[in-house]
Amino acid sequence: MNLVEKDLKYIWHPCSQMKDYEQLKPIIIDHGKGVYLYDQAGKEYMDIVSSWWCNLLGHSNAKINEAIKAQLDRLEHVIFANFSHEPAILLCEQLMEIIPKGLTKFNFSDNGSAAVECALKMSFQYQYQTGHEKKTKFMCLSEGYHGETIGALSVGSMDLYAKIYKPMLMDTIHVEAPDCYRCSYGKFRDSCNAECFEHAEKAFAEHADETCAMIVEPLLQGSAGMRIYPALYLKKLRALCNQYRVILIADEIATGFGRTGKMFAFDHAGVSPDIMCLSKGLTGGYMPMAITITTDEIYNAFYADYNEGKAFMHSHTYSGNPLGCSAALVVQKILREDRIIEKAALRAEYLHNQLNEALLDHQHIGEIRHLGLVNAMELVIDKRTKEEYDSQLRLGYQVYKKALEKGLILRPLGNVLYFNPPLIINEAEIDKAVSICAESIKEVIG
Ligand SMILES: *Cc1c(COP(=O)(O)O)cnc(C)c1O
């Protein structure tokens, strides 16, 4: 049996209908370098989706490799209750320099969904321990995505992932999210005053008494198809949460560390959340690690004599893993010293221009929306009516398969094709990705 056959014999791949693998076999990656991955036969694939949005600085980055190797010979892991280590401490000190003002306390876990679960439990317990026992529910935006565990799914809104599990999920309040491409107020980005925020106002007026926290993907609803909404919405939401004493949770798992053009998506709004969840780019896409960061005010509501029972009795075996922390620490150093985000801004403009030139006039591309290096193209039947293709046609998936043949990993979100490359992608790589993408679309759709 070769490796592909053994893979199919043993492995149940994530987020996959395994029957699809009869037609499109698993691609066994041997090694990676920069924006490229190489299969066993040496075929090159450009990782334009950053391996599920986590690879920040390229594959096999020499500095990150070196930092992890050095840490490996020192300490691989240690229980994080009552014990600590230098990489975790220095990492917090570094992050304090860049995170939104007011966030001061760091709770470590090992994946994005876990960071969200942590934020939800923390909010709930904070409200309880400050005399607001009735505030037990969570609010979220429609089409939101916060991970796949039961709590995270409950505050997610995408039927694709959540529908079948509804009987298992918490009862949450879903607020209609901004939909700028199909704006029902007929606004364009320039004329918009976040009119759609009225849905949040209405929901708060009705439900704030029973709501402990509101969670959002700031500016960019990733899984929903890279839907982008204005920073003004976050500003308004900050004020509303203050007014009703609702905790504001920023899920910056996908948007953190320069993906939106600034360090964090909340930086565009100039306000701070009460809790921020980080993962994905945190370690440059190397190690499974996440952090839930909060304020002194929330932290202090748990701080008491042990027998008062107010502690946050929440843990993960791999909390604060030193290998993850050492990777995250060197990622911070590279971002700072190599001015990665500043330089990526130039390439972001270049990428958007190239995509516009190649595809903006295409009759089946509704719009090319963009934020930072993230660019998303929605495939539609008719550009003017924005009519959607039947999802059963799996058009995005057809384009994905075509692009794979040509060496580009253009994994779609339904009928949305997107670029979310490592921040270090260069202009020649952008040209290549854009041209493969355009060819693939033309060969599949015309
Ligand atoms: C990926 C993602 C998560 C979940 O992270 P996992 O590590 O996959 O559990 C949560 N929220 C957002 C916004 C994400 O993009």
UniProtKB/TrEMBL annotation:
Q: Where in the cell is it found?
A: Cytoplasm
Question: What InterPro entries would the database entry show?
Answer: Aminotrans_3, Aminotrans_3_PPA_site, BioA, PyrdxlP-dep_Trfase, PyrdxlP-dep_Trfase_major, PyrdxlP-dep_Trfase_small
Coiled coil start-end: none
As recorded in UniProt, its EC number(s) are 2.6.1.62
Instruction: List keywords of the entry alphabetically.
Output: Aminotransferase, Biotin biosynthesis, Cytoplasm, Pyridoxal phosphate, S-adenosyl-L-methionine, Transferase
Q: Which residues bind pyridoxal 5'-phosphate?
A: G112, S113, D251, H316, T317
CDD domains linked to this entry: OAT_like
Against SUPFAM superfamilies, the record matches this protein to: PLP-dependent transferases
Quote the pathway field: Cofactor biosynthesis; biotin biosynthesis; 7,8-diaminononanoate from 8-amino-7-oxononanoate (SAM route): step 1/1
Q: Which reaction does it catalyse?
A: (8S)-8-amino-7-oxononanoate + S-adenosyl-L-methionine = S-adenosyl-4-methylsulfanyl-2-oxobutanoate + (7R,8S)-7,8-diammoniononanoate
Quaternary structure, from the entry? Homodimer.
According to its UniProt record, which protein family does this protein belong to?
Belongs to the class-III pyridoxal-phosphate-dependent aminotransferase family. BioA subfamily.
Q: What is this protein called?
A: Adenosylmethionine-8-amino-7-oxononanoate aminotransferase
What's the source species for this entry? Desulfosporosinus orientis (strain ATCC 19365 / DSM 765 / NCIMB 8382 / VKM B-1628 / Singapore I) (Desulfotomaculum orientis)
Question: What gene makes this protein?
Answer: bioA
